[in-house]
Amino acid sequence: MIKVSVNGEVKEIAEGLNIHQLIEALDYRIKGFAVAINTTFVPIDSYDKTVVEDGDLIDILAPVQGG
Amino acid sequence: MKSEKWEIGGKSLSSRLLIGSALYPSPANMEDAIKISGAQIVTVSLRRQAAGGNDGAGGNAFWEIIKSMGIEVLPNTAGSHSAKEAITTAQMAREVFGTNWIKLEVIGDQYNLQPDPFETVKAAEVLIKEGFEVFPYTTDDLVVAKRLADVGCKIIMPWGSMIGSGKGLMNPDNLLAIRKQFPDLQLVVDAGIGKPSHATQAMELGYDGVLLNSAIALAQDPVMMADAFRVAVVAGRLGYEAGVMKEREFASPSTPTVGTPFWHQFT
To answer: What is the DSSP string of B22-41?
Structure first.
């Protein structure tokens, strides 16, 4: 297991997960979101080849109201 | 009437009012206010959210409403404190919202939410190279506006006053200086508008549009206020196009003086 921060919350997840697998493991169901790891954007077509590593800071953002 | 269509970010629009989607009493009230305002551009944002969405099943009521309205969305980078954060947020927004428009907002001071001009210019330069249409939120500083234009911004959005303050236009002369210096850029007063007359004033200065949120959403009746702003923006634009009279330092009667009664000359 490795420790990562997801949206500011520390989580223990299996080693070797890519972004797709991480989203499934987290049971993240919001339709329409984008991901950044360590404050760098990860495009959707890179999810399969991007493997999450121990200590990663992961942000998953979805639409909200804004001014 | 001349002020029917205008161009911004490659789109031809009829409304010069840009409106925020936050702070309304309810999503339904937001929808009604946006509709009656006539606004064709609505600002949105990105945030961390609970994994189940706001209905627990992955749904996002707010976003479903906005999508169904058929209007342009302008995602913002609110909450960014550096060029790097703003650039990442913009890239994420482009993927989620499917638009290359971005309201670039890099905050330099947490107390008055004043934009950081240095980081804003830095981010704008990168984002324009990446194909974004950048709507930079900035102060009413002419030199910052110049720097933004230098890096390729076609749109500049100086503040009227602090975000959410409702104080109106603190420095109309500064705003006018930017307008005069950049007759070909699209200029939008963003932030600080509190009442319809503030929007009218901005439009009378020759600004191409106004962007506001709190003034409508925090009104006692947001829907009625949205209608008031619709009218105020049109009035200000027509006033600008009609050509405002020059101020004078003396009184000048408007009623003809020839034939004034009860005046008799004896000498």
So the answer is: -S-SSHHHHHHHHHHHT-SE
Q: How close is the nearest chain A Cα to the Cα of B7, in Å?
A: 21
CB B101 within 8 A of CB B72: yes
Q: Report ipTM (2 d.p.).
A: 0.96
Q: 0.90 exceeded by the pTM?
A: yes
H helix runs in chain B, sequence order: 27-37, 61-68, 83-97, 117-129, 142-150, 172-181, 196-204, 214-217, 222-242
Instruction: Say if B63 is an interface residue toward chain A (CB within 8 Å).
Output: yes
Looking at residue B76, the DSSP 8-state letter turns out to be: B
Give dist(CA B255, CA B267) in Å, integer. Answer: 26
Q: Say which of B48, B62, B85 has its CB closest to residue A65.
A: B62
Give tens-digit pLDDT for B2-14: 557 999 999 999 9
Residue B158 structure tokens: 């100086």
Residue B2 is a catalytic residue: no
